[in-house]
Amino acid sequence: MSSLGFECVNVLYGNREAVYALDEQVKPGEWLCLIGPNGAGKSSVLRAVAGLVKYRGIITVDGTPIDMRSPKRRAAMVAYVPQSPLMPDDMTGAEYVLLGRNPYVGYFGTETKHDRALVEDVLERLDLREFGTRRLGTLSGGERQRLVIARAIAQESPILLLDEPTSALDIGHQQQALELVDRLRREHGLTVVSAMHDLTLAGLYADRLSLLHQGHVVASGSAAHVLRPDILSEFYGVSVSVHHQDDGTVVVVPKRGRS
Amino acid sequence: MFARRRLNRWWIVAAVVLLAAAIVLGAMIGPAGGISAANWDIIWNIRLPRVVLAGVVGAMLSLAGAGYQGVFRNPLVDPYLLGAAAGAGLGATLVFAYGRTATSGWPVDPLPLAAFVGALAAVLVTYLVGASFGGSGLSLVLAGVAVAALGTALQQYLLLRHSDVIKEVYSWISGRVSTATWDDVKLVSPYVLLATVVLLLHRRQLDVLRVGDEEAMTLGSEVRRIRLIVVIAATLGTAAVVSVSGLIGFVGIMVPHLVRLVAGSSYRVVLPLSILVGASFLILADIPGRMIEHGGETPIGVVTALVGAPMFIFVLRSRRVPA
């Protein structure tokens, strides 16, 4: 299990700062969910950890700054599931998941028997065996999303970053994908950081929520603490009612405006 | 689960058989008749160098095309994308326009040298310009468009000023292997060999790049370095073969695409198969040129497009194009 730390992290896109002075500690095995309106900086935080955007400040994994590692070592620490992954139509499921082994293969090398066996094992455990020989272009959105998660699992990184993992899925597949992440998190002791729009689902699965607004963290804590009508109204400009179920679930329901 | 690997081996075997058949045909057919003891000199000194050079050129252009398509993630890209053709064309035109009399006493022919240097220089300029505005795949392609336009414009200006060499220049641009000698083969072989080895060694890396620059980076690939190395190798090989054969078009796009349609898009198959199929295709494309016109031969670059384009359309129509 690994921890992920942010010390005064600023993310820059050209001259525009997308994230200001982020200080955050994600504990080993914790699931932190970043919420906030479009453009708040959620994706920028994930992309900074994945090494896709420049940032100032320090991002650490287990206390060591992550940009001191080579791209391969970094990939072995952090797996990233983008919002809309590019999935070549005629690649098979197994070939796709095998890409997750890239950090462990030499520059001119090829995957070993161990890599292939591990991929078959991951597909087996994620109940994706039948998709191993299918081409990606023939699969549904939910099936493809599970294969992307399988690729991240084959990467064997202790930290998993998910950018809007459920945005393209129906309610059944949303639940299926998040249940899968939750199960894998427990089995592998993964530390998960996700960005999500669905507040109820975010509160349901994450240990902790951080609400970002214009690059600043404006609220952080449990679902009950962050998902309050006054906070959501201030930062999303939305009118909602929040219901607390007996099992602790926080349900956010938008209210219809007067017409 | 990974059973396609075995299937791929059969494609390689089939392609080797095709290449062998193409070589035999290429050696047998010509105005002087089939293979016989009396013909041996003609076969060894005229037909075989031509067959081998056509094979080397076809293999190199196809492999380089596949490499370019891999690093730019675009199946419609050819090895001339970054200005290699325009640079080689400009270099050759300069020699035809100014150099023929001045260099008549030189021990080496300046034409291949000028084409080679022109191709490399154009791609180098493209890379420097592209890097100055970001260095992404797209900025390189855009820089290549600009450099190619500039090179072509300069070449056209030169041609208008020296209209006496237009026919020679166009004959060179159309491409030919009919004058091939074993010396030509020896001249290009080291570059082609080096480029081939480097490109083949990157076959797995090119498969990783299929998920896009960003995702490849998060999987630990150093995308820019890979792109630079592949472009250098493909350009070196392309410049070498172009310098002796002229600008043979269409092969670099068509062959890798054809391979993808039948054997899938994994670069572990596309690269080796492009070598074999590209060599076979150009050897075969060189044969009708010997027979269509008896007075002068039809340039091979014309035949590749005349024969290749309809064949390509036929294959495209009969199979769905993979992304």
| Most strands sheet of chain A | 6 strands, mixed
Mean pLDDT of chain B: 87
How many domains, in number, for the residues of chain B?
1
Q: Could you state the CATH homologous superfamily of chain B?
A: ABC transporter involved in vitamin B12 uptake, BtuC
Calculate Rg of chain B over CA atoms.
Answer: 20 Å
The strands making up the biggest β-sheet of chain A line up spatially as: 6-7-8-3-9-10
Number of helices of chain A: 9
CATH architecture title of chain A: 3-Layer(aba) Sandwich
How would a crystallographer describe the biggest sheet of chain B?
none
Distance between the termini of chain B: 22 Å
For the secondary structure, the number of strands of chain A is 12
Helix content of chain B: over 70%
Q: Give the distance, in angstroms, between the N- and C-terminal Cα atoms of chain A.
A: 52 Å
**Taking Cα atoms only, what radius of gyration of chain A do you get, to the nearest Å?**
19 Å
Taking pLDDT < 50 over at least 5 consecutive residues as the criterion, the unreliable ranges of chain A are: none
Number of strands of chain B: 0
- Structural class designation of chain B: mainly alpha
What is the level 1 CATH name of chain B?
Mainly Alpha
